[in-house]
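To close the section, here is one more complete example, presented without commentary so you can practise reading it yourself. The ligand is zinc ion.
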Amino acid sequence: MNYADAVALLRHLVTIPSVNPAASPTKSDTVGEGRLARFIFQYLSDAGLHCLMQEVLPGRPNVIAVLEGDSTPAVLLEAHTDTVGTDNMEIAPFEPGEEPDIVRGRGSCDDKASLAAMMTAMVRAARHTPRCSCIFAATVDEEHLFRGVHKLTTEPLPLPVQGAVVGEPTQLRIICAHKGTVRLRITVLGKAAHSAEPQRGDNAIYHAAALVEVLARHAQQLAQRPAHPLVGRPTLTVSTIQGGTAINMVPDRCEIKVDRRILPGEEPAAVAAELRQLVARHANGRFSYEVEDILLDPPMELSPDAPIVERCQRALEAAGGCSQVCGAAFGTNASKFAIAGIPALVLGPGDIAQAHTATEFVRAAEVEQAADIYFRIITNQ
Ligand SMILES: [Zn+2]
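Output:
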C-alpha cells in the first residue's frame, strides 16, 4: 500500500504551531495545542471515526478517536501534540518545505511524524474488513508535565486494550525500556553583606561551588554502577547555577538545578532521598539550604515477552523493519501508561537526535513506513 498521504498530512501538521506554553509563554499565536487538536478531531471525524475531545487544561484538549470492531484485542496508539519552543531554530519553524525526501520544521520529527503516521493508519483501518478495534490518542503537555497522558490514563478508556504503542522518534525500533528522571532545585542560603566587608556575610556561592564538586564526584560514582542491559548506566548533571545580585555584594543565595537519569528498578522518590542525604551530609550544619523536587518521572521496563511486543514485532517483520527490542536514555509517556497498568512500548519514525534541534527534520520514507507498521499493528497482521 502507498502511504504518501502520511507525509502530506505531516507537512500540514507542521504548519499548525503547537508549542507547549511552558516553553514560550509570551508568543500567544504559536502557543498551545488547541488549534492542532481541533484539526485532528475534524480530520478523523471526516474519515468516519468516532472522536472526542478530552479537556485537560483550558483550551488544551487531548483528542481520542475510537474504532470499534470485532477483532480483538484492541491496541492504543498514542502520540503528543505539543512541541518544544522555536527560539533556537535556524530554519522557519512552521514551514515543512517541499523536498520529496525530507519534512522540516518544529515538531516534524518530535512528535508530528508519529501523529501523522498514526492518523493515516487509523483512517486506513476504518475502511478495513473485518473491522478492528483501536484507540488513537493525541495528548497534550508531554514536553512539560505529562498532564495529557495523565488525564488519558486516569479516566476510563472507551475500550479495553492489550497495550499501548507510544509514538516517539525511535527510528522504527521497539523500545522496551527507558530511563526516568529526577530533577531537583537546591537553594543554598548565606548571608548578604557589603563586599568591602565580606567577613560580615556568608558567601552562598562558595558553599554552592563546594556542593557542585560533591555532586560531580557523585556523578563519577554513578558511572561505576552496574549498567542496565538496554539503557546503560545512571547519570547526573548539574545543569544550571544562579547566584548573586550585584558585584559589590556578598551573595546570600545560590541556586543549582540537578538532573539525575534513573534506571529501571530505581524509584524516583528513593533517588531524590539519596540526593537529599548527600546534600545534608555535605552541609552538615555549616550552611542552610532548601531542596525542592522539580520532577519525579519514573523509568519504564516492559518484558520482551509481553503480547503487545510480539504484536509489534510481527508488524515490523511484515513491513520489512527491524524487530529487535532496544532501550533508550530519554523518557516518554510509556512510563505513565505502565503506572496505570497498561503495558506500553515506544515505536515511531524519526531519530531522537533530531528532536528539539535548530534544524529539526524527519525522513519522509520513515513516516510512510511507520504508517504501514501502525496499520499492521492495529489490524494485528
Ligand atoms: Zn516527543
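Once you have examined the C-alpha cells, check your reading against these statements. The mean pLDDT is 96. The domain at 180-297 is CATH 3.30.70.360 (Alpha-Beta Plaits).
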